[in-house]
Amino acid sequence: MAVVKWRGVIEEYATFLPVPSGSPVITLFEGGTPLLPAPRLSERVGARVFLKIEGANPTGSFKDRGMTMAITKAVAAGAKAVVCASTGNTSASAAAYAARAGLACVVLIPEGHIALGKLAQALVHGAKVLQVRGNFDEALRIVREIGEREPVIVVNSVNPDRIEGQKTGAFEIVDALGDAPEAHCIPVGNAGNITAYWKGYCQYREAGVSTRLPRMLGFQAAGAAPLVLGHPVPAPETVATAIRIGDPASWYGATAAASESGGGIFAVTDDEILSAYRFLAAEESVFCEAASAASVAGLMSVGVPESSTVVCVLTGHGLKDPDLAISQIDVPDPIDADVDAVLSVLDIG
Ligand SMILES: *Cc1c(COP(=O)(O)O)cnc(C)c1O
Question: pLDDT tens, 149-162?
Answer without folding.
Answer: 999 999 998 999 99
